[in-house]
Write a structure and sequence with these properties.
single chain, about 450 residues, alpha+beta, Rossmann fold, Beta-Lactamase, six-stranded mixed sheet, 13 helices
Length: about 450
């Protein structure tokens, strides 16, 4: 039998106020945090992050749903049960909440007086040991007003950890700290939590510290989702489809079998995932995320061509450092990926890359811009072409998308161009994420 997760919340809903002023903050939230996990909760202000944290910390009454913390059901729990749970949790708040009239060691000692300790001497020794562990061994007799913001937060961390809690709940622990102080705080929290086997649930807006997490979940408008769940349309059902398919190596086949509506929904959700990724550049070293993007972009490119009734869809990256146009994502030829480079000014795609203007061409071989060498390499015979630029957030063209040959033999028309551009608005965001990881790998 597996050990029960220390935090299990099921269909949690929470309201503030009453009558006409009653406002719902959480909507049927399901959350499970395993023992020893470090989980970060992100989301905009007012999304319910702090409310969720205080519910888990038994600092607020559970109203609707079920919430089990350390094996205790908190909904309608007795005061003695809530107190027993609180004693096993270390709390770190956005503001350190230290008492300035007493020293750093005495602030830490206060957490130990909630527990049964054999002697005053043992309490003092344990508090001093924990302060030394967070790098404040030479500051134990300083008052909070004599410490820097980062040092005060370290005292708060020492206070949270000194009683060896089973859970740490941290609400914006780096909000008032500079970059280095914030990094020092979370690194120390991570190190000590790992050493003690503590479960950490941390709420933050700070993208600089996302790398300490084993898992990141996102709360918005009172509803919770994981970053992985955001990859797909119908959250859990579709996440299982993509994640399992990726692990099993058949993601492209699964996406190819989607209906148009399912494909658009999956594309929209992966676009949201990619936007979050761009905001959190620390994730650029996440191999699983990179692999998922790579596989999904191949699958989405092929599916996009199918939905637009083209024989082939392709995505070119503009590699300005090498002055090349990189054909990276396209339908496979004879089971082999199409992946090669041409000079940046070559061909129709190169022209679109340079001018930023989309083109529709009925007969590619009659156009002087056409690069026949691409057909020679791929064995493909191009007729009609629809080629559009893809721009980054600053409006600069960083990629080019291309459709070749309508299956019915007709030229591409204005309606095709509108639908193509609509797909590219989403795929462009995903492609930017992929390109950012590719550049990161090159720099490494």
């Amino acid at each position: 039998m597996g050990v029960e997760a220390p935090i299990v919340g099921t269909t949690l809903s929470h309201f503030y106020g009453s009558g006409e002023l009653r406002k719902q903050i959480l909507y049927e939230v399901d959350v499970t945090v395993r023992a020893g996990e470090i989980v970060i909760v992100t989301g905009p202000s007012g999304s319910g992050k702090s409310t969720l944290l205080t519910l888990i910390g038994a600092l607020r009454s559970t109203q609707h749903g079920s919430l089990s913390v350390l094996g205790e059901e908190l909904r309608e729990a007795r005061a003695a049960t809530l107190e027993r749970v609180r004693k096993q949790i270390g709390y770190i708040f956005q503001h350190h909440n230290l008492i300035d009239a007493i020293t750093a060691r005495e602030n830490v000692e206060m957490a130990l007086y909630l527990h049964d300790w054999s002697s005053r001497r043992a309490v003092r020794e344990q508090a001093a040991e924990m302060l030394a562990a967070v790098g404040l061994g030479d500051r134990i007799d300083y008052h909070p007003s004599q410490l820097s913001g980062g040092q005060r937060q370290r005292v708060a961390i020492a206070r949270a950890l000194v009683s060896r809690p089973r859970i740490i709940l941290a609400d914006e622990p780096t909000a008032s700290l500079d970059k280095q102080s914030g990094r020092d705080v979370v690194d120390r929290m991570q190190e000590l939590a790992r050493e003690q086997g503590v479960t950490v649930l941390l709420v933050t807006h700070d993208n600089r510290i996302l790398d300490i997490a084993d898992r990141i979940i996102h709360l918005e408008d009172g509803r919770l989702s994981s970053f992985t769940d955001a990859v797909i349309a119908n959250t859990r059902q579709m996440m299982g489809l993509l994640a399992e398919s990726h692990r099993n190596g058949d993601l492209r086949h699964r996406i190819a079998s989607m209906s148009g509506d399912e494909f658009r929904a999956a594309l929209e959700q992966l676009t949201a995932e990619a936007r979050r990724f761009l905001e959190a550049t620390e994730l650029a070293n996440d191999e699983a995320f990179r692999g998922m993007l790579d596989e999904a972009l191949f699958a989405f490119t092929v599916k996009m061509g199918d939905l637009l009734d083209a024989e082939r869809a392709s995505l070119f990256l503009i590699d300005r450092e090498r002055n090349e146009l990189w054909l990276r994502f396209a339908q496979e030829e004879k089971g082999k990926p199409v992946d090669f480079r041409i000079a940046i000014g070559s061909g129709i795609a190169g022209s679109v890359a340079q001018t930023g203007q989309g083109v529709r061409i009925d007969d590619a071989y009659e156009d002087p811009r056409f690069h026949s060498g691409v057909d020679e390499v791929t064995g493909f015979r191009t007729r009609g072409v629809l080629c559009l630029p893809i721009r980054d957030a600053d409006g600069e063209v960083f990629a080019v998308a291309q459709l070749l040959n309508r299956r019915d033999g007709k030229p591409f028309d204005a309606g095709d161009e509108v639908r193509f551009a609509d797909f590219l608005a989403s795929i462009g965001v995903i492609l930017r994420s992929w390109w950012a990881t590719a550049r990161s790998r090159r720099e490494d």
